[in-house]
Structures are given as structure tokens and as C-alpha cells.
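U., I forgot to send this yesterday:
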Amino acid sequence: MRDDFDYDDDFAYNDFDDEDEDDDFGMTFEEDLYLMIREKLRDTIQEYKAQYPALKKLESAVSAFKVNAKNTDDSKFYPLAAKLLSEHIKPLTQDSEEVQEIYDNMQTDIARFKNQRAHGYEGELYLTD
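Result:
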């Protein structure tokens, strides 16, 4: 029998912080990536729409965007939804340099559907100051 057994040392399961990982539990890569793209887009619009009036049109376009692809698995649905969202907002890029920057940065993240190891857009928002 081991006399020097110390529960805290031998069974310290809380030596790592996994709180962020719990958020993704049960999600596919495609779903997680699509939701991240939508979140960055939403946050970018909220952050800059007062500064750039063209983003109000973008906000309206994103709010009106709907995808209806029943009986499609995640591996096909989310890349399709991202592509369609991109095509939906592309006409607005002609009106504003800011919308063009957002669109271009979003494309970097969308490219990750084809290559998961590709580096997506590094920023928290799709627009830089």
C-alpha cells in the first residue's frame, strides 16, 4: 500500500482550463466555422455601423438572409450557407470600401471549408480601423 498518497497531487484533473472547449461540444467543424463567420460579421456591423452608413445596408441584407436546404448534412449545408451569404452581400461591395474589406476578410474564413488547416482571418472583426 502506498503511504504517501496525496489525492490533490495524484488526481488533479483541474490542471487545465477547458471552459472554452465546452462551447463547441457536439458541433461539427463546418457548423462551428459558419457560426464564427456569422458572429464576426454581426459584431463588425454592430461595432462600425454608426461610423460607416453603408454598413446599415449590409446589416439589412444579412438580417434578410435565409437558407433553406432541407435534408442536407452539416458538411454540405454550412459551406453552402456561407457561400450563399457571401454571394448575397457581394453586390454591396460596389458601394463601399468598408463592405469590400469585410467581404474580402470573410472570404479568408470561408476558404477554410475547403482546407481546415488554412489560416482564416485572424481578427475579431472583419473591419480594421
